[in-house]
Each structure stands twice: as C-alpha cells, then as structure tokens.
Amino acid sequence: MKLLILVVIAVLVIFLMLKYYPPLGGKSSAESQRRIQASPQFIDGKFRNQIPTPMDYSLKDTADALIKTIKGTPNSRPKGSVPVDSFDLKAFKENKEDQVIWFGHSTLLLKVNGVKLLIDPVFSDYASPVPFFGPKRYSDKLPAEIQDLPEIDAVIISHDHYDHLDYGSIRKLKGKVKQFIVPLGVAGHLTKWGVEPEFIKELDWWDKESVEGLTLISTPARHFSGRGGSSGMSTLWSSWVIVSDQMKIYYSGDSGYGPHFKEIGDKYGPFDLTLIETGQYDEKWANIHLTPEESVQVNLDVQGKLMIPIHWGAFTLALHSWTDPIERAKLAAEQLNAALATPRIGETVTIGATKYPYGNWWE
Questions:
Q1: Number of structural domains in the chain
Q2: Which of 141, 206, 217, 277 is the most buried (most CB within 10 A)?
Q3: Which secondary-structure segment (H or E) carries 11?
Q4: Domain for residue 53, yes or no?
C-alpha cells in the first residue's frame, strides 16, 4: 500500500511539473498555431526534416549509454576551469569593425554593421531544466553576465533544447532586447516566460526578417525539438543566415549532415564567417549532429571563408573527450585546406580580418 501511495505521488509530481514548471516552456498562441499548420515542414502533427531522419534509440542503446556514462569517459571535462577572456564593453561599443565573441557552447555575441546580436544565449551554470542537476558548465565564470551586456538589437534562437534556449537567461534578457527572432512555435516558450508577443518574430524556413538594416533568414537544419513531455517536434529548428551590405554570416544551429547545407551555400554563399556545430556527437546520433570532420565539410558546402567551431568547450553532453571536437576539426581543416579560427572563450574575432586566432588554448 505504501509503495502504491509513493507511485501515485511520483506520478502526480511529474504531471504537475510537466504542466506548470516554467522552464519546460509554454504553448503556441492561436495565431502561431495557424502558421504552424500552414508550414510545409509541419506534416501529420509534427515538424519534419527535409530528408528522412531516423532517431531510433533502442533499450539496449540506452543501457549501453548509461553504462558508459557511469564508467566515465577519459578527459570528459577539463581538469581545471577553462581560460575565459573578460568582455570589454567599452571596446565592443567603440570598435567599428564587425566582430564576434564566443561565450562557449553555442552562445555568441556579434556586432554586424553596428547591430548587436546575441545567438542562443545560455548564461546558466547548467544546461538543464533543473538547477544544480545535469551538465555543468566547465568555466567558473563567463566573459560577461547578462547585466554587463549592451542593449541587444536581436536575440536569435536556433531551437528549443535546453543548451540553446535557457529559461533563466531569457528572463534576465527580456528587458534589454529589442527583438527575439525564433523558429515557428518557439514564441510560446518566450511568452510563458514574460516576453511580450510584440517583441517576438517567428520564422519558417526561408522566411526573412529585417533588423536595423540587417537581413536575418531562417534556413533549414536537420535536427529535432522538444523540452520534455509531449512537446517533441511541436516547434521548428533552424540554422540562420545574417546578411549586411558588406558581410554574410552563417550559423548552423544543431544539425546532422544533409543536402540543405549546399542548398544554403548556393542560395546565400559565399559566407565571410561560418559558426558551425562541432561537438556533442555520437555514432548513434549521426542523423542529428555533425562530427568534426562533417562540420568542416559543411563550411565548404556553404562556401565559408572562415569557420569558428562551436557547440563545444562549455558542457559535456556526449561520450567523447572535451577536446576531441576541436582536435579533430583542426586536423580536418588542414586536410581540406579550410580556414579555421580557434578563439578562446570571450576573445574578440574581427570578421573579415586577414589574421585570426589559431592557438591551442585547450592544451
């Protein structure tokens, strides 16, 4: 009887969390639902990729992953805190050149033609819906906290996974961001967290939005979405193209390899800078995440002049060593004669410059 009571209580707690716990996000508005239903990507009640993307993960696969996680991966985290450069707000404002600053994982601060953009802002210590539980950030500090950032012209979100869309960060950012540009369906999370609907623009693939003279284009990716419960595939995932009068930038978001990269390159390339997912991969996730070698090939597919590897250096979300992504990406870039930059977290990279950071700071 006591066991039954405990089971009932556990089920009730899970139900209440899924229904009311804010970090899990919210539902789309009626207008958003209308656009979702009309999207060519929304088929039989779910968003779909351009090509078949099986994500079959058997009970054996789950057990194997759990055993490997318990055993641990050598060098899965840095032995100490990773080096982080401090953000210089005065220099960021006064420097007229286009620039990008990597905050670790996929969080990026850009200034393009004077327009300030923040991509996939995750400033929390954990990539998780529950504080103090889940993947913990490597570094003890960030280049800057949210209160130290300038006013942001636009926040760009690639998809709604916890390592790209963070409840705590959005709550802190919403007072200093002019516009949130997100894939279809993601607005429901933001409005749940207090962002006013008039400050959010939802885009389908190939839709465009103008921000202070820049053009932002939502482009395809090969991935999936969901924050738990029954929310899987109810919001879209995107990569992004950023275009100014003199500069083109491509951000991959999370994606498995596919023909969409060449399609994007043919339509919008060449790109002065590409920001490509390079870490958190596994052979069983080959359809939804890039290996380092694939990420360098993606840079070539989209016609990138310079690539910065991202989606690494902050959290352990896979069973490879924490330096494996950048070591393999550097080797692949040398073999394919591709230009690769390896900035420290917080280091400013001038877009379009002839020199760029290439040191092995992780060693």
A1: 1
A2: 277
A3: helix 2-20
A4: no
